[in-house]
Amino acid sequence: KSFATAQYWNAIAAISAGLIANKATEFSDLRPVGNLSVDEAIIFKGGTLMPFDIALFVLSACAILASTLWSENYGNDRSTVESDHEKRKHWYSDILNAFYTTISSKQILYTGLICSLFEGSMYIFVFMWTPAIKELGGGGEMPFGVLFATFMVSCMAGSSIFSIFIGSVKNEKIGLGVFLAATITFALMTLAQTDTSTIIAFLLFEACVGCYFPMMGTMKSLVVPENKRAAIYNLYRIPLNFIVLFSLLTDLSPKASFTLCSCMLATATFLQWSLMKHQESYFSTSDNKTADLEEGKSLLSEELTTRKGSVSKDDTPDEGQNDVPKEN
Fold first, then answer.
1. Which residues does 261 contact at the CB level (< 8 Å), separation at least 6?
2. Phi then psi for 182, rounded to 5 degrees?
3. Could you give the CA distance from residue 108 to residue 249 in angstroms, rounded to a whole number?
4. Distance linking the first and last C-alpha atoms of the chain
5. Which of 81, 120, 287, 292 is most deeply packed, by most CB within 10 A?
């Protein structure tokens, strides 16, 4: 539930950021710096640039706090990490070792592919939801800050839903439901014809996002080895970046992008189902081996007990043996 709590407060911060950004755009109009005309100017200020200026100060404060308050995380076994650093021969040794670890483990590989597919769809949505709203709204001015804050409320609801179900439902089953629901929401975005139905689909997807992050955080913490976690997480982002670049460089329309996202999420749903089946077969095999081992130990114990009983019986004198008269 720690991941769900973190996502919940992250959503609260995002809601505040959206409302502040919406107000910031109303302080002044977008205008060029200096006495240049709009056609001649390169640098502008005010208007829709104000939220980015505010973000600059917020990120600077975060950098200062992180550099002063955070220490390096070496994992549970620092001696193992230090020995790995001593064995390192090249600058790319860690990433190469992480790559071999990823492709040799079906669980780690599938988790990375699922993560890239979902988060790739999420980033495509980030780029495409404003053009989609503009198309449906006729190109007029839209309160994008308020809409973003509304999305974050839905995201916060998703993290709360995860907190409710994680106590009674397995994390992998929650993930399967999240990916299936996200696939359906993108299909609704593709088929939507009105702004109301489109925004409802957007809100449903944001609820899936709010549920996804604590679910995926839990799954990665169980699957990915801690001493290789940083390098493997970096590998996970490689296909993610290719997905986003493909969407941007091909200049797809919002509808085409949402269709692509629906296909990617359907693939993620299938991979999550395959991962669940793999884990079930793995643990059932392990349980069978443990049961066989316990049964073998029990049979061996019974056999040893039987042998001890027979040995003690052989050592006991026969009846009447003590009654034999002694010779004078």
1. 120, 121, 124, 125, 186
2. -65, -35
3. 29
4. 89
5. 120
Alpha helices in the chain (DSSP H): 2-24, 50-69, 78-87, 93-104, 106-137, 144-165, 171-191, 195-223, 229-249, 254-315
> Measured between alpha carbons, how far is 302 from 299 in angstroms, rounded to an integer?
5
Cα separation, 293 vs 14, in Å, equals 53
Taking the alpha carbons of 60, 65, 68, 73 in that order, is the dihedral positive or negative? negative
Could you list the pLDDT tens digit for every one of the 328 residues in the chain?
Answer: 677 788 788 888 888 888 888 888 877 777 777 777 777 778 888 888 888 888 899 999 999 999 898 887 665 555 555 555 555 566 678 888 888 999 999 999 999 999 999 999 999 999 999 888 888 766 567 778 888 889 999 998 998 899 889 888 999 999 999 999 999 999 999 998 888 899 999 999 999 999 999 999 999 988 998 888 888 999 999 999 999 899 889 888 899 999 999 999 999 999 999 999 988 876 665 444 444 555 555 555 665 566 666 555 555 555 444 454 444 4
Contact 111, 224 (CB under 8 A): yes
User: What's the per-residue H, E or C state across 253-318?
Assistant: CHHHHHHHHHHHHHHHHHHHHHHHHHHHHHHHHHHHHHHHHHHHHHHHHHHHHHHHHHHHHHHCCC
CA 127/CA 323 separation, integer angstroms: 104
Q: Look up residue 23 and give its two tokens.
A: 């107000």
The residues that bridge with 45 in the sheet, in sequence order, are 31
| Length of the chain in terms of residues written | 328
CB contact at 8 A, 48 and 27: no
